[in-house]
Amino acid sequence: MKITLDYNNVMTEFVGKHGVSPADIASIKPQIDRAVSAMKTKRDTMAWRELPYNQEEIVNDIISYVNLIKDEIDAFVVLGIGGSALGPMAVQQSINHPYYNELPREKRGGYPKFYVADNVDPERLIYLFQTIDPTRSLFNVISKSGSTSETMSQFMIIKELLEKKLGAAAKDHIVCTTDSEKGNLIKISKEEGYKTFFVPSAVGGRFSELTPVGLLPAAFCGVDIAELLKGAAAMDALCSVDDIEKNPAYMYSVLHYIAFNKGINISVMMPYADSLKYISDWYAQLWAESLGKKFDREGKEVYAGSTPVKALGVTDQHSQVQLYTEGPFDKLIVLLGVEKFRETITIPKLYSDLPSLGFLGGITQNQLIQTEMLATEYALLRSGKPNMMITLPEVNENTIGQILYFLEVATAFSGELLNINAFDQPGVEEGKNATYAMFGRPGYEEKKEELDSRPKKQNKYII
Ligand code: PA5
Prior knowledge:
The chain has 463 residues and is of the alpha/beta class. It has two domains: 4-42 and 229-418, 3-Layer(aba) Sandwich (Rossmann fold); 48-226, 3-Layer(aba) Sandwich (Rossmann fold). 45% of the residues lie in helices and 14% in strands. The chain contains 18 helices and twelve strands. It has helices at 12-15, 22-27, 29-41, 56-69, 86-95, 122-131, 149-166, 184-192, 212-220, 225-239, 248-261, 277-291, 321-326, 355-358, 365-382, 397-418, 426-438, 445-452, and strands at 4-6, 75-79, 113-117, 137-142, 174-179, 195-199, 266-271, 293-295, 301-304, 307-310, 331-340, 387-394. Strands 1-12-11-7-10 form a five-stranded mixed β-sheet, sandwiched between helices. Strands 3-2-4-5-6 form a five-stranded parallel β-sheet, with helices on both faces. Strands 8-9 form a two-stranded antiparallel ribbon. Helix 8 (184-192) links the parallel strand 5 and strand 6 (195-199). Helix 5 packs parallel to helix 9 (212-220), helix 10 packs across helix 16 and helix 11 packs across helix 16. Residues 81-84, 143-145, 148, 151, 204-206, 289, 425 line the site of 5-phosphoarabinonic acid.
């Protein structure tokens, strides 16, 4: 049940001059060797790499907690953002029924409905309160730092609402996932007595899906979290091989790196399965925040990182594929395919007198989506656009564990090739600090002055 990477169509012998040649790969051997060696020597500093192996006790704790609570609640709500929300969404959407919340409880395996509030849009939160009964809900506040304004503002709103309705029992409706020592949330959790799960301090937000950040929400949706970790462990074995021709994550990074240096600065991920749509959302954040860096490790301005773009097959064949085939040579397109869908549906044999419809009769939608994926792959090839295909034999906990881990290793390896720090996000700070300054938060007076001295907008440029 192993996922595969087929990169034939990235190679020049298939796709032509905008592809990557064996000589291109050979020419960056020193960088590859350095990156391979760094992945080994730095493994100790990449705590996320050990997550498939060191969480047996945590998994048991989570499962016991879920079994204790699940019948008491109708809705499980994640309050988080970025790395604290995208992973939970990606796993739930890939494993569960697409209309999960609309199903009767017994068809959800007895598990509660699942919601994620990952924005501060006031309409969304009010509408959520109109949809769920907060007194029959469990709110999972996920924030590694414990200081993210978006998540903490939601927490404050919900805490007040629950306390008004439930008094002291409000605390039983909040579970926190945060750093065990640092930040406001752990302090608040201890003082107010919330059940708490921990994000290991050495695991960064976007690499934390396989910690309680992702495992707790997944378990509340009936996902087999032990199997998720097993899939990740299987992928770790593959991704620990030094030879890039045997290591799918390394090869994925090498091809992206060479393509990027040739001006291909967009990385499209296009799953051909609705269930995988949110995997590309999760991946976009992982790739963008990790690799989008102004400086390399020596402090040189490099402006690194290809821009991740999310697309969905076949839907976006009727939206973006025109650009992918006939537009600029600036994209490397990753098609994500599924060999065996969980359901099969046959198109009835109707309209056999109309050749443009009759050919559909008797084939399955499974065949149609897979054939359309191969047809798009062919169209991209014909137009000289480099593309590769990742295939999941099936979508299940094991293969999802594999793909999450694969993309994490690919991202970290890309960081090594680019010689940048893939684990920080200084570019996010500027916007955060400007928000604090605009609200007059103490300690941000200088930033406020800087902001106030920016050029005033002119009416002549506003229509
Ligand atoms: O990858 C990251 O570090 C970020 O995307 C964070 O996950 C995001 O900013 C949320 O941070 P926190 O979990 O501290 O609230």
